From TrEMBL:
<feature type="domain" description="ATP-dependent RNA helicase Ski2/MTR4 C-terminal">
    <location>
        <begin position="1"/>
        <end position="92"/>
    </location>
</feature>
<keyword id="KW-0547">Nucleotide-binding</keyword>
<dbReference type="InterPro" id="IPR012961">
    <property type="entry name" value="Ski2/MTR4_C"/>
</dbReference>
<dbReference type="Pfam" id="PF08148">
    <property type="entry name" value="DSHCT"/>
</dbReference>
<dbReference type="GO" id="GO:0005524">
    <property type="term" value="F:ATP binding"/>
</dbReference>
<dbReference type="InterPro" id="IPR050699">
    <property type="entry name" value="RNA-DNA_Helicase"/>
</dbReference>
<dbReference type="GO" id="GO:0000460">
    <property type="term" value="P:maturation of 5.8S rRNA"/>
</dbReference>
<dbReference type="GO" id="GO:0004386">
    <property type="term" value="F:helicase activity"/>
</dbReference>
<keyword id="KW-0067">ATP-binding</keyword>
<keyword id="KW-0378">Hydrolase</keyword>
<keyword id="KW-0347">Helicase</keyword>
<dbReference type="GO" id="GO:0005634">
    <property type="term" value="C:nucleus"/>
</dbReference>
<protein>
    <recommendedName>
        <fullName>ATP-dependent RNA helicase Ski2/MTR4 C-terminal domain-containing protein</fullName>
    </recommendedName>
</protein>
<dbReference type="GO" id="GO:0016787">
    <property type="term" value="F:hydrolase activity"/>
</dbReference>
Length: 92
């Protein structure tokens, strides 16, 4: 498989990482939206996908007996899974 390394590296969005980190630290949604130029839906989707990946990592750490890693991942999930991002509907 041929991979263009430069385009792969450029596909990462560091501004989204900073916004998600702020979200995990307890910032309000309107505050993290001011930090980035992405659409609200794109940011919500990124945070939800991160939660899905963390859930899969929790299952993997359980299967290999890494209880400390599992606890850290569960803590990370508890910090990002809150408020409007995980509401059943955005039309409240």
């Amino acid at each position: 498989i041929q991979i263009d390394v430069e385009s792969f590296v450029n596909s990462f969005r560091p501004d989204v990482m900073e916004a998600v980190y702020s979200w995990a630290r307890g910032s309000k949604f309107h505050q993290i939206m001011e930090m980035t130029q992405v659409f609200e839906g794109s940011l919500i989707r990124a945070i939800r996908r991160l939660e899905e990946v963390l859930q899969q990592l929790i299952l993997a750490s359980q299967s290999i007996g890494e209880t400390q890693l599992e606890a850290k991942l569960e803590e990370a999930v508890s910090k990002i899974k809150r408020d409007i991002v995980f509401a059943a509907s955005l039309y409240l």
